[in-house]
């Protein structure tokens, strides 16, 4: 690959090679272990292999597979790879070949989930150092006997042997995230009285035996890395000074080729979600921990955590915080990061905006998806963006995520594209959320789309509402209607809840989307009524709550669900709760709104029927769900025009991810 001059200068550290154990890696960017949830029966599928092959083609020097169980008591799920017997070897071979063909290197992350996995899949109890339950999984594990310890030690060795036979480049043993090995390492989780518990020496024994077992099976010409937490952030857990000692001890085995540093433990309710920080968490937030470890050892140290921009990656390597830098979600958003750096096209990198949609999917056992990279996890199925041999005039109405992606892909294929947007901004729901104090980062996605549309010469007309007559007058081949959806107003549909409204009420009623658009927060007390829920809607309602609370408005959130923001995944809900509850926002779950009086609201607990009055409310923000904006589409169809397509929320209100996917799919067919 020819590297552009400017790139080779500006990013000279991250583009430089590094020796990791027996292998020379071509640059310093790696993709840390992550489950794409694309396996079937524990084996890689075509889509799984394509997923990793794309990352290799994009130029990252190294990638690590998602955690795979080495023993039946350490299972996660069958849609992840499972390394319990030789049936995995053919799949490894295909995976290794696909990655090597594109110049990449790949390691298997070997794990035993301990108390953090799903038990019951194989009718086995969870195994751990001590019967300490994960606060999230809440399963009390079986305390392992000395014989069981030896069984797992051997299982790691056999699993590593299979990875080597499968042609992979090495293994990463995960001693992080509160999984089995971490449960031995950590004073928080290990309460044993035998020679595997107590002193650090004893707590390290299990990991050191695993390293010996793995090394005895694979020898020196196969990478062995260790992932571990340098600060578990729980009482009695591994802290940085203990982590330094662990790092020194691991290096002194002469069998470990690198240390991959992470923070927290999945055994803890809060830390469970914090090691994959969502926006607005700081960038590079665990790099300091990596530096502390790097100062202790001379083997390569890897850093991860919200490193989304090449400039930050460069800073981390050039300032010797770490030797390799993970841009993991960065590669889910855009697997071609390194290639674009090398070609001096950094501005073309589709930036990860920390939405954690990918994590939400995976933790629900669904294939990985990215909020606005429709190819993530489905590039094989979706197919490439190919130049057209039948150049058409394409008009798109609506500049939300569906319209933007349809415009981008159509224009990339060589069609002549015009996009009309009635508001003064592109982005639809993305733009709405980017108005909130905590989701400003979403603006990056809009900037990226804008740049791509400019680059591929899409004619964009903002502040332009078009009618069917305007469109009928145009000489075009394809019309795409992506006019989105709008929040429903109280009383506007028969199926919406019936609420008594006093006609002299002084309470202003404003939908959450209007609230985010107008940014007017001059109120004293607000009630957010999240009746409809749904991922996108609850997010809009919660963003409105945050906007108001930030400006000192007293906020109460009413919802019929068991918990507030039930549809928002814990990786986002946990920091959201921290922010809302620490600004005094009051939660009223299991409740519905009964009446809107002069200046108060009456709510009812849906289970006990008990009523409660919320006094002195001056604004009510009801989230009642969206309704489609498909009038223009219907009019065009009625007028007999052909080649009209309806996309995204205008079909049925859903998520940004669905919208961009539909745009991507349609534009490939035009
Ligand atoms: C979809 C997804 C799945 C993940 N699965 C694993 C895993 O199997 N093992 C692991 O050690 N870390 C896993 N992680 C955590 C990542 O390795 C990484 O630590 C985290 O994403 C933070 O890095 P980033 O900010 O560069 O994304 C996963 C992350 C994501 C996004
Ligand atoms: S879904 Fe969100 S967090 Fe995940 S890669 Fe895409 S932009 Fe980043």
Automatic annotation (TrEMBL):
Membership in a protein family: In the N-terminal section; belongs to the NADH:flavin oxidoreductase/NADH oxidase family.
Domain of life, per lineage: Bacteria
Segments forming domain FAD/NAD(P)-binding: 392-637
Protein name: FAD-dependent oxidoreductase
All copies of domain NADH:flavin oxidoreductase/NADH oxidase N-terminal, residue ranges: 15-346
Classification via SUPFAM superfamilies: FAD/NAD(P)-binding domain, FMN-linked oxidoreductases
InterPro entries documented for this protein: Aldolase_TIM, FAD/NAD-bd_sf, FAD/NAD-binding_dom, NADH:flavin_oxidoreductase, OxRdtase_FMN_N
Taxonomy of the source species: Bacteria, Bacillati, Bacillota, Bacilli, Bacillales
Keywords: Flavoprotein, FMN, Iron, Iron-sulfur, Metal-binding, Oxidoreductase
Pfam family membership, one: Pyr_redox_2
Gene3D superfamilies attached to this UniProt entry: Aldolase class I, FAD/NAD(P)-binding domain, NAD(P)-binding Rossmann-like Domain
Cofactor: FMN; [4Fe-4S] cluster
